[in-house]
Amino acid sequence: YTLHNLGYTLVTEDGDGACLFRAIARYVFNDPSLHHLVRTATATYNYITMTAPMIAEAGTPEQYYRSRLDPRTWGDNVEVQGAAALFGITVVVFHTTDDVSYTMSQLYNNASQHPWPLVLSLHGQYHYNSLL
C-alpha cells in the first residue's frame, strides 16, 4: 500500500530515541512533548507486569527498566505492546523499508476507549512516525 491508498498523512517524529514515545503521546495526550511520561509509564508497566515476553532480551528486568528510562534508547514492539495494554488502546503498525510501500506488520488490539486506533509507521527497524 501507499500512504495515499491507506488514507493517512505521515507526521515525522524526531529521530532521537523518543520517536515511538512521541507518537504515542501525540495520540493519547494530543501532545508529543509528553513523550517522557509515556516512556516512564510504559517502562514501569512492562517492568511490573512482565507481560511483554521479549523483556528477557534486555537481560534482567532491572536492566530492561534502566535501559528504557534512558531518553536515547528507542522503543520497539515490546514498548508498543506495553503502551497498548497500559493506555487501553488499539495500535496498528505499518512497516516500510523504502518509504513508498507499506504493509501492516503488527496489530495490538485492546478494548479501546478511543474511536480510532493509534496508527504508526515503522521505517526500517528502528524509527516510528505517526500516521494521521
UniProtKB/TrEMBL annotation:
EC number: 3.4.19.12
One Pfam family, short name: OTU
PROSITE patterns reported for this sequence: OTU (PS50802)
GO biological process, one term: protein deubiquitination
Keyword Electron transport appears in the UniProt entry: no
Enzyme category, top tier: hydrolase
Keywords recorded for this protein, A-Z: Hydrolase, Protease, Ubl conjugation pathway
Top-level taxon of the source organism: Eukaryota
Gene Ontology molecular-function annotations: cysteine-type deubiquitinase activity; K63-linked deubiquitinase activity
Keyword Iron: no
OTU domain mapped to chain residues: 8-132
Catalytic activity: Thiol-dependent hydrolysis of ester, thioester, amide, peptide and isopeptide bonds formed by the C-terminal Gly of ubiquitin (a 76-residue protein attached to proteins as an intracellular targeting signal)
UniProt family annotation: Belongs to the peptidase C85 family.
Protein name: ubiquitinyl hydrolase 1
Species of origin: Tribonema minus
